[in-house]
Design goal:
By secondary structure, this protein is mainly alpha-helical. The chain has 31 helices and 7 strands. Strand 1 and strand 2 form a beta hairpin. Helix 21 crosses helix 24 and helix 29 packs across helix 30. The termini are far apart.
Length: 775
């Protein structure tokens, strides 16, 4: 029978972290440290019972936390029945901090109470034991993350125990993270025999399966609040409330060191701050949850805004624009009318309009959906799927390159922004002869910032009070703590000047890039208008400088714009900090968008393109898009080996190729050569989704992280998890609300603040066009 089959059958013993014991048994076969290994070396057949005996003889995982029967009898007076003979527990392991040397005295005392009462089969002690993680089946399919029973653990309450001087033991749930790796083999004088080498390969293969083939390679010290620590195993512990995160980590660490000694495995563990839940470990009752003045203030702002919206909606009986005779305050209040804003949201796209390029709506909507799925993969990797191996296998498909290279979608948003702002600025200069630069900057800030402020306030002060679960402290609380410290950076759009791992609402780095690059638009458009050749030379110089920076930075620092299989988490954050969030690094699509938008405004739609040139343009665009999206498909393979030289070439040319391909699509549709594609990109559902795309971008991670944080049990992974229908509907609903309450009202308020004629009124169509101009 194959070694892997024996390993799979040997997983039946109900022992905590017994998957490690499986590896010990096969490792023993590798090292010749047991009768089973000796038989293997001699070429003898190994029956399943022999391997099972080897597994059962391996060190009991975490059982070293239990004292001997005599010692426990001396401490609590309980009869010294052996755990393996207990008819109820049936030899199942018990995790305890009773004898953890580095745990606090009160934690050790309550742990001894737990052991004593468990021996007596007290219900609360059985619940505490039952709530901790146990070894399931399917570990070799990636089912290594075990969340135990969160609610059962935090609900444990012994009441006052008279036999223990009135001691009251309550449950505290802690989520430990365990890193497992093979120890470096000792130098040998002669090569190992073939059977031993085969057994060593079996150990490696088994560990790879336990860790779901290491989709992303992580370490305990890596931050896990945004990008998942994929190869760290989550294991639930239920301990007395007197035990802190430090106590739990000390106890687990001690026992794993004993477990790993001489096994050929390196086992390290951590219990991060915020990953223990339940009553505070101190002797007092602890602070009352949910009492946060800052949270109350943030909610007060939301309520005030809701009251203004309700007032405006009730007063807006006909949905018509505010009379021209109304004052600025009246117009500002009525800008929040839901009736009026809903009409703007669902309005049919006009045939033209100032700055309205119809196909851009569809392009923005489709790339927003693509980016949504790419972002969803991040949270899929956080989930404790019972078949996590299948998640990695799905990610190994060649088409997954369209998600691994998701930077092209954010590049698309930058290009669309550049096209629209240059197109409208050029038209404005043609009409007025000049551009009010400051007006443009203020208008953009006024439009984008209120919704962003609402989001970071929610992240920092409200989100943490809305739920609880095994990973809540990691994906919600840690993000809340970062936002409390750093949200001011978001409001100033300078969050990308700081490390990616310290960024509030990490995904909003795109807004900072867009805001910073938008500073280039007015001077560049002005230069193009006054000196077309000089302006073109400056645009070319910026592109060359940006491409050179991407190439050199990627080559010299081992960066990768594509998330390849097995990419170390440290390299991913390094890429984000040195490439992804740097404005000059990302300038190519924006600057090329400025060039396209300017020349589109000058050329107009009446352009003749010969059929041969048209066919060649579409063919070239297809080839360039393939290069940017799919050419790196081999990076999804399990055996992919990173090459800095290849990554540098891709980093240098990919944004250029993608911008050219997307630019051709926009230009062809704009000039009437888009055919059915242009018609599709202009259909009403895509137009409506485009109008809420900014809010979709802001709200999606809050919904993702909430669902990860409250997840209490393992699920079955399927490819359809990429877009969960209920989750998607929630994101859409929240995005519509944010658009109606923040996005559209800011259009009218912007005009009140910035237009010289405060008595002019806006129709629904005019406000829709303003929405397009400020994108």
């Amino acid at each position: 029978m194959l070694v892997a089959e024996r390993v799979t059958r040997a997983l039946r013993p109900s022992r905590l972290l017994a998957c490690f014991s499986i590896l010990f048994a096969v490792r023993a076969e590798c090292e010749g440290g047991s009768d089973v290994a000796a038989s293997a070396s001699a070429g003898a057949a190994i029956d399943d019972d022999a391997l099972l005996r080897a597994v059962l003889a391996a060190p009991r995982p975490l059982a070293a936390g239990l004292a001997s029967d005599e010692e426990d009898s001396r401490e609590d007076g309980a009869p010294g029945a052996a755990w393996g003979e207990d008819p109820l527990l049936g030899g199942a392991p018990v995790f305890s901090l009773a004898h953890a040397a580095n745990a606090s005295a009160r934690c050790r005392r309550q742990s001894r109470v737990f052991l004593s009462e468990l021996r007596r089969h007290r219900l609360w002690a059985l619940q505490m034991w039952d709530a901790g993680a146990k070894l399931p089946s399917g570990v070799l399919r990636g089912n290594a993350n075990q969340l135990g029973d969160f609610d059962e653990c935090v609900g444990v309450d012994s009441g006052a125990l008279r036999a223990w001087g009135g001691e009251r033991v309550r449950g505290r749930y802690c989520l430990a993270e365990v890193d497992v790796s093979l120890a470096a083999p000792a130098a040998a004088a002669a090569p190992a025999p073939a059977p031993r080498r085969e057994a060593a390969e079996a150990v490696r293969a088994a560990l790879d399966m336990v860790l779901a083939y290491r989709f992303i390679r992580s370490e305990l010290r890596d931050p896990g609040h945004f990008v998942p620590k994929f190869t760290s195993i989550n294991w639930a512990l239920c301990v007395p409330a007197a035990c802190s995160e430090g106590d739990a980590q000390a106890g687990v660490g001690e026992q794993l060191r004993r477990l790993g000694a001489g096994s050929g495995l390196q086992l390290t563990a951590a219990v991060e701050r915020g990953l223990c839940y339940g009553p505070a470990p101190g002797p007092g009752p602890g602070p009352a949850p949910g009492r946060s003045p800052a949270a109350a203030a943030a909610i007060g702002l939301y309520v005030a805004l809701a009251l203004v919206t309700a007032t405006a909606t009730l007063r807006d009986r006909d949905g018509k624009p505010t009379p021209a005779s109304a004052g600025a305050a009246e117009r500002a209040v009525m800008a929040f009318s839901l009736r009026r804003n809903w009409a703007a949201l669902v309005a049919t796209l006009g045939a033209g309009g100032d700055g309205d390029i119809p196909c851009i709506h569809g392009v923005r909507a489709l790339f927003s959906l693509s980016l949504y799925v790419a972002h969803k993969v991040i949270t899929l990797a956080l989930m404790p799927y019972v078949n996590r191996v299948e998640l990695t296998q799905a990610a190994n498909e060649p088409l997954s390159s369209m998600l691994r290279a998701s930077i092209v979608y954010t590049d698309s948003f930058l290009m669309l922004s550049g096209v629209l702002i240059a197109y409208n600025l050029s038209r404005e200069m043609s009409r007025k002869g000049s551009v009010k630069w400051m007006k443009r900057y203020v208008a953009r800030y006024v439009r984008l910032t209120p919704a962003l402020v609402a989001l970071v306030l929610f992240y920092g002060y409200v989100f943490e009070h809305l739920g609880q679960g095994p990973q809540w402290g990691r994906v919600v609380q840690q993000n809340a703590d970062i936002c409390k410290r750093n949200m001011w950076r978001n409001v100033l759009y300078i969050q990308n000047f700081f490390p990616f791992e310290d960024m509030c609402a990490t995904h909003t780095h795109q807004l900072a890039l867009d805001m910073q690059l938008s500073l280039l638009a007015p001077p560049l458009v002005t230069l193009l208008s006054k000196s077309p050749i000089g302006g073109a030379a400056v645009l070319l110089a910026i592109n060359v400088l940006s491409a050179a920076l991407r190439y050199v930075s990627t080559r010299d620092n081992d960066l990768s714009l594509v998330i390849y299989h097995g990419m170390p988490m440290a390299q991913l954050y390094k890429t984000a900090n040195m490439a992804y969030e740097i404005a000059l690094y990302r300038a190519t699509p924006y600057v090329m968008g400025i060039a396209l938008g300017y020349y589109m405004s000058k050329i107009g739609k009446n352009v003749y393109i010969p059929k041969a040139a048209l066919a060649g343009g579409w063919a070239a665009a297809g080839a360039l898009a393939y290069y940017a999206l799919l050419s790196r498909w081999a990076e999804a393979r399990l055996d992919f080996e990173y090459s800095a030289a290849e990554a540098a070439v891709y980093a240098g040319w990919s944004p250029v190729a993608w911008a050219l391909a997307l630019g051709w699509l926009i230009f062809a549709c704009f000039t009437g050569y888009g055919g059915y594609l242009n018609t599709f990109l202009s259909i009403k559902p895509l137009v409506i989704f485009s109008r809420i795309s900014y809010a979709v971008y802001l709200t999606q991670f809050a919904v993702f992280f909430y669902n990860v944080g409250v997840t209490r049990t393992s699920e079955q992974f399927t490819i359809l998890k990429g877009i969960d229908p209920v989750e998607f509907i929630v994101v859409i609903a929240l995005s519509v609300v944010m658009t109606l309450i923040f996005d559209f009202p800011m259009q009218e308020i912007k005009n009140i603040l910035l237009t010289s004629d405060t008595r002019s009124k806006k129709s629904v169509e005019q406000r829709k066009n303003d929405f397009n101009k400020t994108l």
